[in-house]
Amino acid sequence: MRSIYPGRLSARLLLAALALCAGSALAQDTSSLLPVTEAYKLSADASQPGVLKLHWDIAQDYYLYRGRMKFTPGEGITLGAARLPDGEKHHDEYLGDVETYHHAIDATVPYTAAAGTRRLQLAVQYQGCHETDPKICYPPHTVKLDLPLPAGAGGSSGDGLGRSLGTPGATGSLGVAGTPLPPEQAFRLDAVATAPDRLLLRWSMPPGYYLYRDKTELAAPGATGLKLQPVWPAGTHHQDDYQGETVIYFNEVEVPVGIAGPLQGRKRLTVRATFQGCQDGGICYPVMTRTLDVALPATGNGPASATADGAEAGAPAPHDGLLLALLLALGGGLVLNLMPCVLPVLSIKAVSLLESGESPARARRHALTYTAGVMSSFAVLGVAIVGLRAAGHALGWGAQLQQPLVVAVLACVMFAVGLSMSGVVQFGASLGNAGAGLASRSGPAGDFFTGVLAVVVASPCTAPFMGGALAYAFAAPIAAALAVFLMLGVGLALPFLLVGFVPSLARRLPRPGRWMETLKQVLAFPMYLTAAWLAWVLAHQRGADAVGLLLVAMVLLAMALWWFERSRGGRPASRLLVLLLAALTVVPLYYLTHVPPPTATPAATEGVVAYSPAKLAELRAAGTPVFVDMTADWCVTCKANEHTVLDTDRFRDLLQRTGAVYMKGDWTDVNPTIAAFLQQYHSPGVPLYVVFPKGGGEGKVLPTVLTAGLVDRALTEASR
User: Which of 76, 258, 465, 519 could form a disulfide with 328 if both were Cys (CB 3.0 to 4.6 A apart)?
Assistant: First the structure.
């Protein structure tokens, strides 16, 4: 059974969560629900000129909303008012007064076709619900009809009868598919080398055809030791009748492909692609194999060698030496302590060190245990990145914040830590506390897990000098890469180590007193601000529904912590309620993982071009200088650069004066195309700024921290 992501589920869950607080049950078994195309079977008849007849067969215990039907014409088609029968009137608890249909419905849609139009194309959208337990509503479902026009309606003749075919389809299209094209026309494949060790493959398909991602294999026959590593962009998730849960692509898909292995002196490469695709609403083609001969650019003549300019930006290439990378890592770790994403967590340790100011031994224990948490976390992170890199995967610094669940959990942790510092709950020495409790409790566990939390929230921040060290680590041998990550940990933990082990510094700390409780409560507000920032990031990733679910989780979490404090020393039943509330906190987070990205494409900002490899190649071929900005909403350094340099009148005037194009790539969510660009320039993450000159040639990588003068010089040189 395919997954169902109800469009109204978020609103229902908000109300259901309130009901749960009064004792009602939330969980429902959805295993018996039908797929939307089986619950509402649509057929179409266009045999009568000027009139499209639609018929829905509605399964038992399901219904359709009359007011949720929408008809959108295709090219050359003008629709009249749809004629729908009256439905059963009743009051819906969420939508108010509505009309619904049960069992079956017949509707007609009048239309006119422009001269020369041969096909009746339109989109039919409808929405319905299951009215018995589990009571759940489907998201609005759209069916794309493509029917031959009957004689006298402006096109060629045909029987015009649309019907659901048993072949795989991604959009639920109905209608008689046209005569299948030959495979060479239905699936055109091109390949070009964008660097000595990187290809770009492009499948082009006419409307109504799609390609399977998981049925595609790439090889380099005759090239011993070479392995092709594709980075697939996000596609359309589809429950296929034959392939099961899979990903497909319509129209066109560009796939960056890395070449791993010895390429010394190789000028050409043979690429063999094996793949399969289908005609939507028609046939599925047998597995196809294409062999392409690709010319490789000489080393230093393509974009891949552009990272040689990284030394100018303070980012050493892998051959620049381990010592310099370690020094940069130490400096980057030190500066991380001042970054706004780390400061809230460090406030916890500031209070702890002040409280232990009268005991040098205790201060040393604080510092050592906190350092152990920091170093362990950086070691785990380094091992994970090295392992994924060895397996051929690209992983960028801060990439975990591309996962909405990670963002939501971090927001809850920051919120819980803030509540603890505000005095809503006081965590003691109980071993049952986790998450925020581990970070805010006293003793070695609190120190250790504060170090862990500091590393987790530090990842969106790229401090000055840190980018170069990470660039080295992402391309260096395993031992050197791990050493760089550990040195970052030393830099992050060094201030607390100094305070703990240098008595003269410790003596400069203020004496403990009642003022410390006030300071602790004041420092709770940076925690709340961090949680608000994470909610803002989540809104950009998954929209308002996801933020609503996060707020429900936070309310339930606050209730659990409040009752935990109230029930100290109480009866076991009181503690049981704490566990119940804590368990309920997980429910909205679970549903949050099922919220799809917003379907609406955000309006393009004036003067900004969205990044794509094809558009960049087009601009470069036209001799246009290009400023490429790879950014993300969770990247604090990116936002600072935008505020001070890129989102200013001076920068816009500079673009106009130099004739340059400002191209931006958004890495807030997972985007394999942008990940491939970052990997191409050996960048550990965002921000990444590359300026491509007017006359062609290599792109120039700029520092991660921009100044107006630096950008002015780079674009002026690029425009000459």
Answer: 465
In the chain the first and final C-alpha atoms are separated, in Å, by: 60
CA distances in angstroms from 309 to 473, 689, 691, listed in the order given: 17, 12, 11
Q: What is the 3-state secondary structure (H, E, C) of 272-339?
A: EEEECEEECCCCECCCEEEEEEEECCCCCCCHHHHHHHHHHHCCCCHHHCHHHHHHHHHHHHHHHCCC
Q: What is each CA distance from 344 to 336, 531, 634, in whole angstroms?
A: 12, 10, 16
Cβ-contact 658, 625 below 8 angstroms: yes
Q: Are residues 480 and 559 in the same domain?
A: yes
- Is the preceding peptide bond at 134 cis, omega within 30 degrees of 0? yes
**Domain boundary, last residue among 303, 335, 360:** 303
| Burial of 626 per CB tally in 10 Å (0-12, 13-18, 19+) | buried
Strands 661-666 and 608-610: parallel
Same domain? 430 vs 558: yes
Run of H or E including 565: helix 524-566
| Residue 22 neighbours by CB distance under 10 Å | 6
> Residue 398 has what DSSP assignment?
T
pLDDT digits (tens, 9 = 90+) for 499-546: 778 767 766 666 656 766 776 778 778 778 888 888 988 888 888 888
Maximum alpha-carbon separation in the chain: 96
Residue type, 219: A
Please choose, from the candidates 578, 502, 318, 525, the residue with its C-alpha nearest in 3D space to the C-alpha of residue 418: 525
What pLDDT score was predicted for residue 311? 34
Pair 570, 628 in one domain: no
CA distances from 462 to 370, 459, 680, 685 (A): 21, 7, 19, 9
The reply to whether 391 and 455 lie within a common domain is: yes
Give 371: exposed, middle or buried? Use CB within 10 Å, 0-12, 13-18, 19+. buried
The helix/strand/coil state of 445 is: helix
Token pair for 492: 């992050």
Within a domain: 126: yes
Does any domain span residue 198?
A: yes
What does the mean pLDDT of the chain come to?
75
- Whether 710 maps to a domain, the answer reads yes
User: What residues form DSSP beta bridges with 627?
Assistant: 662, 691
Query: Whole-prediction pTM value?
Result: 0.42
CATH of the domain at 612: 3.40.30.10
Residues forming beta bridges with residue 483, ordered by sequence position: none
Q: Mean pLDDT: which of 252-261, 414-423, 430-439 is highest?
A: 252-261
What is the layout of strands, in order, in the sheet containing 217-219?
Answer: 217-219, 268-275, 288-295
Which residue reads 């050359």 in tokens?
76
Please count the structural domains in the chain: 4
| Residue 634 counted as domain residue | yes
Q: Using CA atoms, how far apart are residues 367 and 349, in angstroms rounded to an integer?
A: 9
The percent helix, strand, coil of the chain (3-state, each to 5) is 40, 25, 35
- Domain shared by 492 and 430, yes or no: yes
CA distances from 148 to 118, 251, 281 (A): 6, 21, 14
Residues 480 and 622 in one domain: no
Quick one: 154 and 91 in the same domain? Answer: yes
Instruction: Name the least confident of 325-339, 349-363, 662-676.
Output: 349-363
Nearest Cα to 281, choosing from 161, 160, 175, 205?
175
CATH of the domain at 98: 2.60.40.1250
Domain with 330 in it: 322-592
Final residue of a structural domain among 129, 162, 195: 162
Nearest to 679 by CA among 263, 302, 395, 402: 395
Residues 142 and 231 in one domain: no
Mapped onto helix, strand or coil, the DSSP state of residue 110 is strand
The answer to whether 174 touches 145, Cβ cutoff 8 Å, is yes
Encoding tokens for residue 57? 């067969």
Q: Are 663 and 615 in contact (CB under 8 A)?
A: yes
